[in-house]
């Protein structure tokens, strides 16, 4: 059976367009719904991320506040460490004056008598005394005793640059011999100076404390 469409072509095209228009409208609505759901999903994810970021910021602020509270203890610890270093440096550079005097007394020749001995880390050491000489002996004997003293003092680890400043021949005191008339003792009086040597390993500078 053969169908013959007697409608004008314009009417046929319009009807055909009306049929496709329905599907196009449904497709547009579906696409709009997809875009709407996608936007809603992205908006929800963005809100969740913002909430997480705000929570992280609050945690960061709280931890920063706690860190600021403990920073004072860190500063105190650094100050204590600096002071400890300064104290250790001072102890390393400290000179035991009592031990130094004992060392000096141990190396002095028997024929050398000290009358005065001073020691200072700033001014160094200074000593004065006498050494006897016999009237029948050359005066060089007394100077040899003084030279021996200077050599021994320079060999001490805590003393250096010991030099003789003055040496004069004279008499000192009196020496009684039985009932005889007391006779003065012939001596050579001397004065010497030197420097105090800082122990090896001591710090050259003292650390300064921070603010």
The CATH architecture name of the largest domain reads 2-Layer Sandwich
H-E string: HHEEHEE
Q: Give the fraction of residues assigned to helices.
A: 40-55%
Radius of gyration: 52 Å
Counted up, domains total 2
Question: How does this structure look, described?
Answer:
- It is rod-shaped and about 165 Å long.
- It folds into two domains: 8-94; 97-196, Threonyl-tRNA Synthetase, Chain A, domain 2 (2-Layer Sandwich).
- Helix content is 52%, strand content 23%.
- It contains three helices and four strands.
- The longest helix is centred in the first third of the chain and has 84 residues, at 9-92.
- It has 211 residues and is an alpha+beta fold.
- A hairpin with a 7-residue loop joins strand 3 and strand 4 (183-196).
- Strands 1-2-4-3 form a four-stranded antiparallel β-sheet, with helices on one face.
